[in-house]
Amino acid sequence: MPRIIPVTDARPREPKPDWLRVRAPGSPNYHRLKSLIRDLRLHTVCEDARCPNIGECWNHGTATFMILGDVCTRACAYCAVAHGRPEAIDAAEPERVAAAVEALRLRYVVVTSVDRDDVPDGGASIFAETVRQTRARVPDCRIEILIPDFKGEAEPLHAVLDARPDVLNHNTETVPRLYRMARSGGRYPRTLELLERSRRYAPHIPTKTGLMVGLGEEKDELVQTFKDLRRVGCDILTLGQYLRPTPGHAPMARYYHPEEFRELKVIALDLGFVHVESGPLVRSSYHARETADAFAANAQSR
Questions:
Q1: What is the 3-state composition of the chain as percent helix, strand, coil, each rounded to the nearest 5?
Q2: What is the tally of structural domains in the chain?
Q3: Which residues of the chain have pLDDT under 70?
Q4: Can you tell me the distance from the alpha carbon of 120 to that of 34, in angstroms, rounded to the nearest whole number?
Q5: For residue 5, is it within any domain?
Q6: For residue range 83-105, what is the model confidence (pLDDT) as tens digits?
């Protein structure tokens, strides 16, 4: 029987379980990457979203670049990224991202963004140009894009897919019952529609999505969400523990034990996902290159 650790707001915050403790970042490679990102005036979701894996990923010379600024037009209850009125779109940002990928000699890169509901295409043109600029500088670099929902519009999505990323990622985040609480401006049917639309328009590009657990969802809700995602042809799934960034964010209902993550992975694979990353510290872009490699190997064996 998996051990369940409840977390409530009525008592002091409980210490994190051993399986959620990570070493503080500080390696030479971490500092080198941090310095380069500052010099190029770039943002990473690793820092802005307070990812617990930043030390491990940056030590290995990998990062998830966050384009379109560092201020989001939405205020999702789980997210540590700042929200408010963003600055103007920076047309030179794609070139700087490409320069960073080249300087770091990356062979796999993840590009994500804040939501930019203030611009007509939601920032899709900057996503597409980032893919093109990166390919021009580092032709053998594979590129995964983790996109917002573009308010459900097809044209921005098609513009991004026309740039031919290697993986199209859009996070589901939570089960439909919790969308109103957790995802400001998000819609569960819109998420499914985006993933299905991507598969129809560019069937050669695998689709990927991620879910957080610990927000109060039930197991049967998770399983139904898995089924919905498979129905729209989603290939790759990531499952990780929600960690409350500050007391002002959505409360965490409980910690999931690693055994529960293993059980959820088996269920998802049995439903037909080609690859599943499931664990307390898993995030959308954690081990993204390894996930893409495993997906490719599994897809070929089917």
A1: 40, 15, 45
A2: 1
A3: 1-15, 19-63, 286, 301-302
A4: 32
A5: no
A6: 899 999 999 999 999 998 888 88
